[in-house]
Records
---
Amino acid sequence: MSLVQLTVNGTRQQVDVPPMKRLLDVLREDLALTGSKEGCGEGECGACAVLLDGVLVNSCLVPALQVNGSRLCTIEGVSTEGRLHPIQQCFLECGGAQCGICTPGMILATQHLLDKYPHPTMEQIQEGLAGNLCRCTGYMRIFEAVQEAAKVA
Amino acid sequence: MGYTPQSGTGLLGSSPLRKEGRDKVLGASRYIDDQSLPGMWHGATVRSAIARGRIRSISYDPAVDWAQYAIVTAADIPGENTIVHLTRDHPCLARATVNHPEEPIVLLAHPDKTALLAGVRGVRIDYDPLPGVFTIEESEAAVAANDTERIIWEGSDAGGTANCFKQYCMYSGDAAETEAGLEAAFDTADFIVEGEYATGAQEQLYIENNGVIAECFRKPSGGIESVCVRGSMQCPFYLVHALTLVFDLPEDKCRVIQVETGGAFGGKEDFPSVIGSHAALLAMKCGHPVKMTYDRAEDMAATTKRHPSRTRHRTAVSKEGRLLGGTVDFAIDGGAYATLSPVVLSRGTIHAPGPYKWPHLRVRAKAMATNLPPHGAFRGFGAPQSLFGLERHMDKIARTIGLSPEELRRRNFLGTGDCTATGQPLNEPVDMQHLLTRALHEAGYHEKLARFTVENKTSSIKRGVGFASFMHGTGFTGSGERRLNSLVHLDLLPEGRPQILVSSTEFGQGTNTILCQVAAQTLQLPYDEITIARPDTSVVPNSGPTVASRTAMIVGKLIERASQQMLATLRAHAALPEAHTADDFHAAGLRYLAKHGTLRESVRYEPPTKIYWDDDLYRGDAYPGYAWAVYVAEVAVDMNTYMATCTRFDALQEVGKVMHPVLAKGQIEGGVAQGIGYALYEKCMWKEGRMMNNQMTNYIMPTSADLPPIHVHFEEVPSIHGPGGAKGIGELPMDGPAPAILNAIENATGVAFNTIPLLPEDIFERFTSLGHPHGGSEDLDVTVDRDTRTEAVEVTA
Ligand code: FES
Ligand code: FES
């Protein structure tokens, strides 16, 4: 077991876990943050995506040991006191979430994308979200949500 | 964009926020894997390593401390060892024989999830292998040769013959008259055009894998009192039915709760009966709640997929381009057990004639057994398969007789008042001519056709356009809705607000939202006033399964009627004024509740009096309504990489009243994306019945970077059968993309590809075999269709 210290959504946390435990499981099991989902467990679907020190990572591929001392943002940290972040509001209004299982990862990928390109082109959106699979929407409503969010933000 | 809460009239057709959408964007929705129960254990499945054989022995590695595990085999099943759909051929756990790879044999549970892998590895199963059949052709050959070694399925309590789960023979009229008509048509036709078309298996690939949590409750005497399963699923009452048999319990002792479900597409229609029964057996054995969730590899290897298919067409055509007669032989690969194959086959059969007039038509259809895991429901349910064959064949006919694909279809479209091939008169307006005109216009089809022909001559990127015209029936086939006999409740909650109770489930399509819209519009209340109860079979009535594009039209209509009843009750007994505000409604509701205690409006399905279906002759009104569509695809084929890409897609459909434009668009776009995947990306690789690429790394679905702009267009012609004129749209978008894309690829390259999925390696192989490794369209031989191995023949010229 290893003691891992990290800041999650602004709160300092400390967990005692096997060093190779997946960050995804640390979040879901040790910290009860179940917003990050497992779709594949092999870095393909992005349902488990979180922002690790501002970088979009698939938490199913990150061992706990590696996040010691890091700052982490998960879907639970995107809204403030129950108020939707503009990205979340746009996903809701544009129909960017259908079954919702890809949505947490998709929203974090969008946040990352808009940090990098506040006014992204369609190509930048398509490339920026290409690591996040959605089987429901065909992505068109998601693209619209991202474009709307870029206008609001 | 922007959302203004609306009330009453005008709500249907507006786009209020998805009911459960806020929780979804917050990441606060609780899917099954986000839940746990006190003392919960975890379950796993030990599966067959071979495709077919006898189980000689099951042994347990002494190095594992088995006292820590609960172990379940077929011998532990208290009721019948069957997962019942239509037949009892499908065992819950294999006992003496296995019939497909990954067939479940032993179940294990352990308090610690991480201990399960060692347990699964510690169970050793020895087999005496038997020969298997792995394709439709091998299965047919075994029957033809009467090769008893390879008869892998003998028939069942519900019919079927050796290696064949179900057969249909559908005629466009009286059987003898149609046969005579066909003979005359083939004798006198100017052209006879033949073709063979094939489609592959497709994985639903919902992003949330199958998962459940089960509990088993004991009587003081120790006997089983009841079971309860919650999980990711489409049809809670299907699982209730399965549990009653496996546990030999009455229905009210088998409780099923659907929790937030992360995509389904048919893949969670019948399969939850398997995983749900398994988890409940483990809960019975260990005395704890048991969670079973599959990982991606297990979900892909062991659960259902879309049926592979083969369609053979033989068509008599006049030189003016009239269809004079046709025969269609349609076969699907059902896998090892019947499961839903007879129903999938039925929908494929009924959709095989497409939106065309056939003076004489015979469709022969069969579902064959193979030693693959059973194939099951997937959006479209047989129709995408037979429509792929038909819409490719229509382009072939056009090319053979020298008409444009557009003109050929125009000369044969069904219209208002015509009869479909099952003899159903189309009483509601149908205007395929207009749909085709508009779809081609929206897509810029004619301009592109001309431009690409010129540009392709000098480019190594060949571009093309193609389209497909088709329809999809709403609701259960024939007498299906009559048999389902669906029931809905509308309750008035203590605070005077209405709540919908149905077993119809939300898994992304928008069930919660549209049913609340229907109630709000009818009750003349704001949308936010209406809630919908979680589908828990101990609380909600059986409003039928959430399949077959039936929820909006059939269940929606029941909600509309229940709402009308509630208004009438409150007007008659609680002085609700004719034109009321939400406050008037609450006040009247509270007055009523004060006097009577509760208010529940229950409405049961009433079959339209004019709908008639004959199951034996397979004739009559196949569906209460149809959605009609023309889809246009634009493609680019790179002759250096052999990559075919869809570069633009236009989807025009007539779906009755569009209830929620944002959700409707999302449904169509999502279906089109799956259809593009079906055509160009998603290939299941099989070896001896086992899926070899059961990972997201090597089974490729389209990403955001792969898809073209998808333009969705609607025509609204209200239907009398649906609430506010709506029809079903869920499955429709799956039918059109694959044939439209392959038609466009033929337009681009001059080569007819008639098998999907079509990946670069397939295109490469075809061009190399044609002897034109870098061939341009101008020097490709277009008259010989090598893919189908049959050639069009001109009978008289
Ligand atoms: S679960 Fe991590 S990428 Fe799919
Ligand atoms: S909304 Fe279902 S996977 Fe994206």
---
Amino acid sequence: MAETPKLALDHVAKRFGSNQVLRDVTLSVAPGESLAIIGGSGSGKSVMLKCILGLVEPDAGTIRVDGEDMTAMRAADRERIRTKFGMLFQGGALFDSLPVWRNVTFSLTQGRMLRKREMRDIARENLERVNLGGDVLDLYPAELSGGMQKRVALARAIAPRPEIIFFDEPTTGLDPIRASVINDLIVELVEDLGVTAVTITHDMKSARRVAHRVAMLYEGEIIWTGPVDTLEDCGNPHVERFVKGVAQPAE
Amino acid sequence: MSESGTQNTVVTALAAIGRPVVNGFAGVGSAAIFAGRTIRRGLTPPYYPTRLIEQFFQIGWLSIPVVALTAIFTGAALAQQIYTGGSRFNAQSTVPAVVVIGMVRELGPVLTGLMVAGRVSSAMAAELGTMRVTEQIDAMRTLRTDPYRYLIAPRLFAAIIAMPLLVCLANILGIFGGYLLSTAKLGFNPANYLSMTADILEADDIVMSLVKAAVFGFFIALSGCYAGLSASGGAAGVGRATTNAVVAAFVTILAANLVLTVAAFG
Ligand SMILES: Nc1ncnc2c1ncn2[C@@H]1O[C@H](COP(=O)(O)OP(=O)(O)OP(=O)(O)O)[C@@H](O)[C@H]1O
Ligand SMILES: [Mg+2]
């Protein structure tokens, strides 16, 4: 029997009012795998991750995490499953009322002021991994640049050592050097710590660097998935156009 | 106009009335579920005492100036009105009695409720609404922390505790305002005024005043938190949430006041 996938989506659908964002998403991710998701702006990539986390309720379909069906679960079990995840939100979503160090250690203290010295050390370690120095510990999110906010958010997502991490556009808004530090970090998390990673990205260079496999979301469905090195000539016209950045011919 | 045209007009008109009513009831239903969930989760661990104290400070302590001024001005104005009105049938001497009953049973809780609602419901809706639309609340849920326990329950409980204390203060200062005006301007004897006030006041009045206060505190926090958590659509959405919060708090306070007053004294 094949290994249980870490994550398995089966015929997931989600609609907001009349906007059918996800039609029929079927996708699975193996333990320790790094998957990149590509797709046009507004195609529902972020919504898909939020469905998996239970932040958005899917209309139909099942979502299994380590074989357990999230969609059929009680709230308490869902909270337990959710502790396996870490998520880097596209907009950072840092708590603007808390300084950086308390943001980074939020999941460890559940927002409480506990073991201050230890928490600051943990914050410093995690910030180091995203190439930020200890000088930002006491700053507030509003005092940081956009790229720094993104990296603090990344440090916050990895701090509790989750088994599965979602990165929603981790390198958008970063300069090429910072972006490559983040790419290296994702690779390191996957290769050294055995984390399962799902990365949404528009950056093909980053996808090639971090992912084993790529999936493309188009009109509410996963229309193609395959190893990252076959991305260029996969035979799917939508994927090839997207990867090469060619506009779709008018209908 | 044709018959079906008339019918359509009627249907459109009914729909225009019906839609907000149905939406209103749906809103009441989901706000009730929201309140139930907050209370259930807020009473089970993990607890956030620091958050509770913080909110108590925000809602209670920082509302003191506005509540105090409102109460003094209203108590004094009430004394003048009763005096002038009462003089039409030689009942000027009822000033102490009417001021104390009016303040403790009605104006103390209601005015404090409205003033605190204006300050607090809007601030809660703006803060939580901003957190909602910037995905901070979603992020919190992925960080092993329940926003109902961390954000909502402390606000709700702090408001329920703070409001009775503020209303006590408002009652005392309102009576004091009436006393000041009556003794300084209307020629009442200070000792007489106070003894008449004490004679008329009953324990039931005070209990009812504090019950009202706690209920209003509940609606103030519920309106602010519910509007904030249901905000969507950026800065404009947060603006709408803030307005909705204040309107909902005012309406629920006045409606609850009527229900409680009729139930207790009717
Ligand atoms: N909470 C919501 N309520 C209503 N509509 C929503 C909500 N969240 C997302 N949508 C809609 O779902 C669609 C997909 O949004 P999503 O954020 O998933 O896009 P995306 O693929 O992540 O795009 P991008 O690459 O620009 O981040 C959009 O049309 C958006 O308007
Ligand atoms: Mg997105």
---
Amino acid sequence: MAPLLEIKDLHAEIAGGRKIINGMNLTINPGEVHAIMGPNGAGKSTLSYVLSGKPGYEITGGEVIFRGVNLLDLSPDERAAQGLFLCFQYPLEIPGVSNMAFLHTAVNSQRKKRGEVELTSPELVRKVRELGKTLGIDADMLKRPVNVGFSGGEKKRNETLQMMLLEPYFCVLDEADSGLDIDALKVVSNGVNALRSPERSMLVITHYQRLLDYIVPDVVHVFNAGRIVHTGGKELALELEATGYAQYQSEAA
Amino acid sequence: MAAVQDTVEQVRSIDVDQYKYGFETNIESEKAPKGLSEEVIRFISAKKEEPEWMLQWRLDAYARWLTMQEPEWARVSYPQIDFQDLYYYSQPKKFKAPKSLDEVDPEILKTYEKLGIPLREQVILAGVEIPEGERPKIAVDAVFDSVSVATTFKEELKAAGVIFMPISEALREHPDLVKQYLGSVVPATDNYYATLNQAVFSDGSFVYIPPGVRCPMELSTYFRINEKNTGQFERTLIIADKGSYVSYLEGCTAPMRDENQLHAAVVELVALDDAEIKYSTVQNWYPGDAEGKGGIYNFVTKRGDCRGKNSKISWTQVETGSAITWKYPSCVLRGEGSSGEFYSIAISNGRQQVDSGTKMIHLGKNTTSRIISKGISAGKSNNTYRGLVSAHRKAAGARNFTNCDSLLIGDLCGAHTVPYIEAKNPTAQFEHEATTSKISEDMLFYCMQRGLSQEDAVALVVNGFVRDVLQQLPMEFAVEAQKLISISLEGSVG
Ligand SMILES: Nc1ncnc2c1ncn2[C@@H]1O[C@H](COP(=O)(O)OP(=O)(O)O)[C@@H](O)[C@H]1O
Ligand SMILES: [Mg+2]
């Protein structure tokens, strides 16, 4: 079975600035859920941005193969259409654009790029309402402008809704639990878990172990100074919780 | 900033590449001698077969204009205009006021077809996909350079008692109405360009809605400047008598030329008791090229007089064109309980300069006004909102709400907000909100991560930004305006 994602000796820096990703290697097979844990400032969010193509970063070495194509050659929207989804730690607000209209534009932009038939309004509305129900997202939230005035929990549920609707092959979740109380955390993780399937993989980025009680990973990586410094099973998360990252700091240098 | 930079680059080149209305119609024209003089004014008046009082009215304005100074307070700069180097009147050579569309020069009909303004009745502004039968009717008055070349749906409007015709024709057919109202909202003393307009105006539309009549269709005037070195000075007068309603749309384009062209129009609206006038403009005059060469100087005076009790006047404008825009559609809230509204979207890019806004003059008791202004600046343009809200001593209970938002695309453009507030009555309540934001790289990235192309992301964010105002436009105009906004942001993918 071909891997879904292969990161090979990736090096990246902030345009005109510091080097953040420093010889990173990672292979993820279809259906696997990997967790990346590491201290603040390790470069975890930067990794998610480099993978999704955010402007402002320069790739100085290595490659990323995703579903058989060289990911780094694609624009952010092409990467999205190829099946990469980034669940933002701080989702952006878009005033004046209703949530439903945004979802419609997003779904159909991707379908169009893939040469698939576009969803009609009634089809989309039905689908969104169904998915919304499972996340406690009501009609009012769908009418409101995207993320404007949403609470932290609402924003994360909205990210999860987008993810469920867009049905990506690969989900990167950056600190998916930040700003969530325990109830919201359960709703969001249930949504994420419902998406787990033999074809779909996930990369769960977090610096707390708590989230991994709800989204249980197959593999856990310790990430420091821009690369993976240690890899283990799901029990590694608990170990880290007890011992901290200090023991891996030296390995990183 | 790569994406935004690309957007900026693209936006910079738009005016050259994207202005779709820049073609020229080859048609012989008859002009007044070049320059401005009493003789030229007499020539225009004679061409129009005007009554003596009209000629006198023009000459009075001219005499006054000679003593006036060009205003300098706006945040716009341009070389001195040589008023002697312009033609003040141009009409198609074979022109004879047409009785029906069959008599209109086919070249001119073609021009309007190309512009998407077919003058065939039963059809509306092109490019809008609305099933036959559900299409709203729109009567069009088409003004080509200095003359009205066609007015549609005359008969149907006549049956409803509505008068909709070129102002030159109204002077002959309804002289008393014209005499009663012309210049009663914008007097000869008003401002430099309005006074000039009074001296030399050539044509424009006249509308009268009788008491209690709801105008059975949208009325529209479509202005086209074709001729070189020719100023366009049209004058529009709309009167909504007691309890009547009318919605009026105005559109405009001009060929691409290297020289600047002057457009100095005057629009006067009068709403009597319980009447309502909704006036919408999609202004798309040629903005000049990316380096600021050419384009229309748009110096326009638009004012509505809510003369009657509980009357209402609402201005909605989408401004994307012109090299310079100097324009403040205003409401004089004279009647008790009257209300005024101003909804504006002003987009500037390239080297465009926009200084636009409104005046809400509260004179009567319990008058209300609402101002929603959205300015979008890109390229090296400058976009200024300038607004005055005032309450007279007698305007007890006057209320205003102003919301004024600016959006910047790129680092080389400017947005400015200049509000003036004067309340001489202690019970007046004025609220003012203003924001300036920049289209952020993060917001575009968020949209693109969800699958939108960069171009679509910019259009989505901008459409969200202007939504409150777009909602105020009649449906078919909203669609056109939305397209226009997308066109002016087209090609933003790097
Ligand atoms: N746009 C930026 N400009 C400058 N420094 C940045 C930028 N983004 C991230 N950094 C720096 O890069 C390092 C890695 O940041 P980040 O990827 O956010 O780490 P993490 O998500 O693991 O906490 C930090 O030192 C951070 O300050
Ligand atoms: Mg982070």
